[in-house]
User: What shape does this take?
Amino acid sequence: MGWLDGQVALVTGGGSGIGRAVVARFIAEGARVGVLDRVPGRAEELRAEFGDAVVAVTGDVAQLADNKRAVAETVAEFGRLGIFVGNAGVFDNFLSLAEFPEEMLSEACDELFGVNVKGCILGAKAALPELLKADGSMVFTASVAGSNSGGGGPLYTASKHAVVGLIRRRAGRHHHRSARTFASGPRPPLAIRRSQYGGAAAGQQSAADRAGARRSRRRLRISVVAD
Ligand SMILES: NC(=O)c1ccc[n+]([C@@H]2O[C@H](COP(=O)([O-])OP(=O)(O)OC[C@H]3O[C@@H](n4cnc5c(N)ncnc54)[C@H](O)[C@@H]3O)[C@@H](O)[C@H]2O)c1
Assistant: This one.
């Protein structure tokens, strides 16, 4: 018997990385899982790996219509939705404002905030009616960058602070309702972060940033925000 027997989840960005690991673990624990990911072809990959336990929708978390379609297809396939995982995110590769090419900055802000912040808000909005019916939960993949300066460049750090703000705000607004909201801050080993995000940049964190990041990790691990 798994921890999630009978549960149905929707994971954004479930086509790779942390989101895919969440999908695999949820299914191993007995859940059925919908995935919203923008990369075409991921739906077939997920079907091949997880069979009927998954339904995957190709779309963009920054579009409300795509989030609503993912909720609708998950409910059509599995009958309900009890867990929403707002996980899709993009990184800024630790680029400082000084390093950021001026002609790319506005577009980069739009993309990064569109995915990391607006994507969480629109996904939460789309999932909320089903979560309230199911006495469900929302989980957001935040980051150590959600409460500290050492987890990314200024764009990413600002976006993850906004995600933590969203979680706190939802906690305040819905304490009387049954949709719970949680934050999680993954922290893979440095070697993985270096290979993913570029070794030199990751290695350039100051000692103060690293110490702050350690403190933030301790806080984020216990940041179950609302019930
Ligand atoms: N990897 C880390 O070290 C780390 C640390 C802290 C937080 N995070 C956070 O964890 C989450 C997942 O990161 P990851 O490292 O697994 O990244 P990843 O790039 O491996 O996976 C992200 C997934 O999201 C999807 N995606 C991106 N933009 C999308 C969009 N607009 N619409 C739909 N899907 C979209 C991608 O296609 C991909 O499948 C992100 O929110 C990230 O900020 C990662």
Notes: Residues 158 and 195 are 23 Å apart (CA to CA).
